[in-house]
Specification:
Layout: E1 23-27, H1 32-42, E2 47-52, H2 55-68, E3 73-78, H3 88-93, E4 101-104, H4 124-146, E5 151-155, H5 178-202, E6 208-212, E7 217-218, H6 233-238, E8 247-248, H7 249-252, H8 254-261, E9 270-275, E10 279-285, H9 294-308
Parallel strand pairs: 1-2, 1-4, 2-3, 4-5, 5-6, 6-9, 7-8
Antiparallel strand pairs: 9-10
Length: 317
């Protein structure tokens, strides 16, 4: 997003480069890591669009960003990743002639059964976290292709590191366990982000695709942004020991922000926190072994295309 020059200073999470004139979309930008990603990107002078299915929460998030970032350019669009039929209209609702980056961050995480489905009949977490973003990217491609060097940043999860996909049961119909289904939905996202970059490179596209994960990010270690997030004194004190291993969601946003802005980041890379992949400043890390399985990636891609009826590509139309 920012041209690299010999005088480009070292990356700093506290002083990211300016991005005036750029337009960034953050899905799920009204809460959690998505909110802090949006807040930090807004501080660069870019226009930041919050994608949210809840207009009231999006309005609260936009107001909070304006309160913490002087002169912030932020607005919201309605985005429901669980409703595939609503996604073609999202690109038009952005009101922009190009999109310099999209951060595919939004998602749902269920802790308890029963298994739930989207209105399209897909398991809720797989359908929202992965299929919704897969389809959304297809509809955003004309705007991404219109930018000089746009980036698609897919936010995976450290929870996906210990999971493996069953290509014959991507929707967890046979043995549904909520936490496992969540980890697998994020793993499917990560396979998508890497496979997408390979396809973009083969097509000679100017768009690149990068995968990131936030490490361990807890609400109890996250600074307050009322009414978006309120951290009590008790929660802060109780979480103090955990700060040795994990971090707040403000720091969990750092890999995504760097993937959007840093000219040194390349397509097809994986970025996460520096310390054991759980906390600290963002760094490039080796691809996890299972993420290099191109056969599984191809099956996930084909299944996603069949289930959504669309396919992200390098075409601008």
């Amino acid at each position: 997003m920012v041209p690299a020059t010999p005088s480009t200073p070292p990356w700093s999470v506290r002083r990211p480069p300016r991005a005036d004139g750029s337009v960034f979309l953050v899905t799920g930008g009204n809460a959690g890591i998505g909110y802090f990603t949006a807040e930090q990107l807004a501080a660069t002078g870019a226009t930041v669009v919050l994608g949210s299915r809840n207009p009231a929460k999006a309005a609260d998030a936009a107001a909070s960003i304006r309160a913490h970032v002087a002169g912030a350019r932020v607005r919201a669009v309605r985005l429901d990743l669980a409703d595939l039929s609503s996604l073609p209209a999202v690109a038009e609702s952005l009101g922009a002639d190009r999109l310099d980056a999209v951060v595919l961050n939004a998602g749902v995480a269920l802790d308890d059964p029963p298994r739930r489905e989207t209105r399209d009949g897909h398991e809720l977490m797989f359908g929202t976290n992965h299929l919704g973003h897969f389809a959304l990217t297809r509809w955003l491609m004309p705007l991404l292709s219109a930018a000089p060097a746009a980036r698609v940043v897919t936010v995976g999860s450290f929870a996906a590191k210990s999971e493996r996909l069953d290509p014959d049961d991507l929707q967890s119909r046979e043995d549904y366990r909520p936490k496992r289904a969540y980890g697998r939905s994020k793993l499917a996202q990560m396979y998508f982000g890497l496979a997408f970059d390979r396809r973009l490179r083969a097509a000679g596209s100017t768009v690149t695709s990068v995968v990131v994960h936030p490490g361990g990010a807890l609400d109890s270690l996250t600074p307050s942004r009322p009414p978006v997030h309120v951290r009590t004194a008790g929660a802060r004190l109780g979480a103090a020991p955990a700060a040795l291993l994990v971090q707040g969601k403000d720091a969990g946003a750092w890999p995504a922000v760097r993937a959007v802005l840093d000219p040194a980041v390349r397509g097809g890379e994986l970025w996460g926190p520096r310390v054991f992949g759980l906390r600290g400043e963002p760094r490039r890390e080796p691809l996890w072994d299972h993420l290099t399985d191109d056969a599984v990636a191809a099956r996930v891609w084909d299944a996603s295309r069949d289930l959504t009826g669309v396919e992200p590509g390098a075409a601008t139309g």
